[in-house]
Amino acid sequence: MSDTFVTASPHWTWFIIPYFFVGGIAGGAYFLAAVLEWFGRPEDRPVIRTGYSLAFWGAVLSGLLLTLDLGRSLRFWHMVFQSDNFPHLMFKSFSPISFGAWALLLFGACAFVSWYSEKEGTLAKLIAALGGLLGFFVAGYTGVLLSVTNRPIWADSPWVGALFLASGASTGAAAIALFAPGRGATERSLRWVTTFDARALIVELLLLIVFLVSLGTVAKAWLSVWGFLLVVGVVGAGILWPLRLHLKPAGAGALRNPAVMVLLGGFLLRCVVLLASNSIAYHHVASVVAR
Amino acid sequence: MPEAMGFFTDTTICIGCKACEVACKNWNQLPATNGGVAQLSGDSYDNTRKLDGTHWRHVKFIEQFDGPYNGRWLMMSDVCKHCVQAGCLEVCPTGAIIRTEFDTVVIQSDVCNGCRACIAACPFGVIDMNPAAGTAQKCTLCYDRMQVGLEPACAKACPTDSIQFGPIVELRTRAQKRVEQLKAQGEKRARLYGDDPNGPLGGLNSFYLLVDEPEVYGLPRDPKLPSRNLKSSGALSAAAGAVLGLVALVGLRKRRMDEIGGGGQKGSEN
User: Could you tell me the residue ranges of all domains in chain B?
Assistant: First the structure.
């Protein structure tokens, strides 16, 4: 039995799950917008603007969700300032929540500037480069945060961060594909986004397999309703089905729109990874071992 | 600088009276469970089941029975281990968790904002939220009492001295003698858990004498710091980011090559 089974759940549930999902979309969407800001064409502008919009509003929503999740929400500023030594800054490079709070703050600032200022040029590119890196950081650190604990599943594999980052990229691309047509994106721009999405899904699937294998005997913890949802919801509906739709478009409707299914899969991935671990209560495990 | 202080809990003389739990709740003004109404676990004399934000001491009742007459109870008064290398202190993003002059680990309730990182980081499942305070809480080793030279409430209340408080160095010597005594009496399974300063987490400032495997008591065999995964997890995430960045750039390159190959039919070719 892994030592992680005798620990206690942090109860990260219905504010944190949407945060992990939204933060992933925001980070992934900004990264793609930043790539086009550097290497795209004037015709890609609607896609870039969609990416910046998703990133900015995603960052705002992320901050809100994180604040609401705190046991003492009004003390949210304790993450960035030393509360008993104000205005000294609070930063711990080895604490994922600490560097995550700073990364989200800086990412939000980049996303705001990129979203608000419609200017193009060197400065916009530099901000996009910084924001793009921070975007991927925000998408991935949430998984690193889970691995840097002592909880079952999360701490039993170092692959959660990479998996969440890939999911952030795929859901970010899906969100752009969903909203950019309304902003006048050209078909060629959109095709680049959807092609990237399909490839990101393949990377995500491979990472998911590696993640499950890396769990070793702990993988048995997935023999639950969460494991069922992982296979059917995340892999089936959220990865394989949209991949098939990319290859063979199947007409109109939400279930036939790969972007909608990718977003559903990304949300379910966060749900199952968090809830599968949260549902393991150490005192139940301990009493079973004693017998 | 005062010397390192802590607990040595000899589980072989715990009688399961729960005086420690009551004294802890009393001194630290922790609320009763279930509004004070008795709450039974249904399958054990252990009615609080675990340590959490309002139970900073918990007497575990480990029932090893083979039939109604053949078996034993193992009783263990569990508490925060005040690890020399503390996972909770490591991950706390607000600086609420501090190491005191007595080498103990304390959560400052006025600094904690309830992010709950420490709960997931603790290898022993010690910490949890106190719903009344909205912050994560655990045993302080009665920091307030220690500052005025008093021993912690639980150790003071323990009628059998199963919980002993004192300088860690002294407690280790005492614990070693007790193990030898038990072994001489035929209890060959006697062992110390967390007494080794060169062992996991640099040793525990609350350590135990056990008479079975650690897992039986719900203790991790090899407790580790959460930061063990930081470098590998960060590096793998960065590698995944690099791969996906490359995928994005290759896609753009292909688009450009197709365009050139398509004889400049912009807008219609991939």
Answer: 5-224, 228-261
Q: What is the pLDDT of residue A251?
A: 72
Cβ contact B57:B22 at 8 Å? no
Closest-CA distance of chain A to residue B259, Å: 11
Q: For domain B5-224, give its CATH number from 3.40.50.300, 3.30.450.40, 3.30.70.20, 3.80.10.10.
A: 3.30.70.20
Whole-number pLDDT of residue B32: 81
| Angstrom distance (rounded) from CA B205 to CA A221 | 32
The C-alpha angle A233, B245, A256, rounded to 5 degrees, equals 30
Q: Is A88 on the interface with B (CB under 8 A)?
A: no
Which 3 state secondary structure label does DSSP give B3? coil
Rounded distance, CA A174 to CA A152, Å?
A: 30
Q: Read off the pTM.
A: 0.93
User: In the CATH hierarchy, which fold is given to the domain comprising A3-290?
Assistant: Formate dehydrogenase/DMSO reductase fold (1.20.1630)
Placement of tokens 């752009």 in the chain:
A176
Q: What is the mean pLDDT of residues B85-97?
A: 96
Q: Which residues of A touch B129 (CB under 8 A)?
A: 11, 71
ipTM of the predicted structure? 0.93
- First-to-last CA distance in chain A? 14
Which of B75, B130, B236, B257 is the best substitution to test chain A (most A C-beta atoms within 10 A)? B236
pLDDT at A281 over 80: no
